[in-house]
Amino acid sequence: LAIAAIVIGVAAPSFSSMVQGNRLSGQSLDFVAALNLARSEAIKRRVLVTLCKSGNGQNCVADGGVTNWGQGWIVFADPNNRGTRDNGEPILRVHGNLAGNNRLTGNANFIDAISYLPSGDTANLGNGTLALCDSRNDDALSPAIVINSTGRPRLTRVNQTAMTCV
């Protein structure tokens, strides 16, 4: 019994860290999938498609970055080019809040929403980065999603960008 207790005591912290790392990885891939969907739908539908923060799965939250993307997001067709969802605009995907109280925050270009033009480029001004962080606040372990002006996302680590998790 004592040996089992020692083994569990040694293994539990590393197992917890592994779970947190897998959660971050999965959540970053979910966001990249939403970006790729928004981009491909904008090209296919030939209208602006927007991905925005949404706590209720219906409406955008445009608060200048006060609330992080971790509350959830929606992807919707935005034919009137407003960047916020109006009644009747089709929702293409809904993602709920991030498990583990993780935070997803964007820099100045991607604070509240990311919109894609029919060309597949972002309607936002220039490149942008979003940092996905958990309670460890470790920039070397936390994924960052970098979106270039042509709308293509790529994954890197927060410590390789100008953002931090703190």
Give the integer mean of the pLDDT values. Answer: 90
Q: Calculate Rg over CA atoms.
A: 18 Å
Helical percentage: 25-40%
Q: Tell the overall outline.
A: elongated
- Give the SSE order as H and E letters: HEEEEEEEE
Poorly predicted spans: none
- Identify the quaternary structure here: single chain
Give the tally of β-strands: 8
Number of helices: 1
Distance between the amino and carboxyl termini: 41 Å
Q: What characterizes the major β-sheet?
A: 4 strands, antiparallel
* Coarse structural class: alpha+beta
Strand order of the largest sheet: 3-2-1-5
- Strand proportion, as a percent range, falls in 15-25%
Question: What does this protein structure show overall?
Answer:
The chain has one helix and eight strands. By secondary structure, it is α+β, with helices and mostly antiparallel strands. It is elongated and about 65 Å long. The termini are far apart. The protein is 27% helix and 23% strand. A hairpin with a 5-residue loop joins strand 7 (143-147) and strand 8. The relative contact order is 0.17.
Provide a concise account of the structure shown.
By secondary structure, the protein is α+β, with helices and mostly antiparallel strands. Helices cover 27% and strands 23% of the residues.
Q: What labels describe this entry?
A:
166 residues, alpha+beta, four-stranded antiparallel beta sheet, 27% helix
SSE layout:
Elements: H1 2-45, E1 49-53, E2 73-77, E3 91-95, E4 103-106, E5 113-116, E6 128-133, E7 143-147, E8 153-157
